[in-house]
Design a protein that fits this description.
Blueprint: H1 4-10, H2 53-79, E1 85-90, E2 95-103, E3 108-121, H3 124-130, E4 136-148, E5 155-166, E6 172-184, H4 190-204, H5 211-222, E7 224-225, E8 231-232, E9 236-243, H6 248-263, H7 265-276, H8 283-303, H9 305-312, H10 317-320, H11 341-350
Antiparallel strand pairs: 1-2, 2-3, 3-4, 4-5, 5-6, 6-9, 7-8
Helix pairs in contact: 1-9, 2-6, 2-7, 4-7
Amino acid sequence: MHGLLWILLRNGIRATVNLPVEIGKLVVCYKRKRMMSNRLTSDREKSQVVHHSSDTKQRWISFVHDLQDRICQALEKEDGGAVFREDRWERKDGGGGKTRIIANGDVFEKGGVNTSVVHGKVTDAMRTQLKMEGDSWFACGLSLVIHPVNPFVPTVHANWRYFECHNTEGKIADQWFGGGADLTPYYLFEDDARHFHQTLRNAMTPFGAELYPKFKQQCDSYFTNSHRDNEMRGIGGVFYDYLRPQDEQDADRLFAFQQANGNAFLAAYLPIVVKRKNNVWNERHKHWQEIRRGRYVEFNLIHDRGTLFGLRTNGRTESILMSLPPTVRFEYNFHPEAGSEEDKLLQVCLHPRQWVE
């Protein structure tokens, strides 16, 4: 995760941010939506809030830390050389996190797998700036971004999070889960795209057949560079938020749903890495990778709500910018040759496809 306010924003708290003149004024407003089916619900009625905070929090913290360990170990093994460096940090107002960074590996050029467990009192500034109700809050999650060396291996991003807001009696006033995963290839391999999306769909389908199509569409809509004719930064995945439990049984189902998605990550991504990491590449391929990385940077610094809000509110800069690739390229009015392999990738970014039926 990217620090306190990044987490707060990612988890649906409403905010208005005035950006520098060169970017313009961005109004960030996460609107709470009904996003769940009759099997996964997001009812906002406070009377429906499930009050079993301690058990849910502790189970989620344990899961997130275990998932961080498993993902880091698997990525280190696949790289075969580089290892993650851990940077533990503390937040003076409550909680902290573990930022783990891998760099200059044989397979992974740069990446981070970060966790945070933070909490605190709702301040007057939060009430004013975030329109936040309640007396205290808690947030915990895992966020990762992996940038490979080989242009034929895609970049990947994922996060899974849990949030609570409490009243003056310490009871939960609101709670929800959110998360998702998306793939950013530089060259299009349709079987890789199908594998990634099918694995995510397989994880979600036991909880409702309608969930993958809904969350796939939300991912396509969110990870888009609207200033470039709605060009997606990659081929998408899934994105969901504000998954609120109706009762204890629903809370357990939501927890299991979130676990299933987190546990599916390695199965979705690593087989693609294994298949493509030894593909022979040249400077032309690297040139295109850096062009597309530039689009990744554009999205993160212009559109990504969490990144922008964290930078404007003195968030932990090193963790916020961990998501950026190590090298990028910006060339004036660059267009790939029509019909080329580079253009094939661009076309699916401009025209999102359904990768699984």
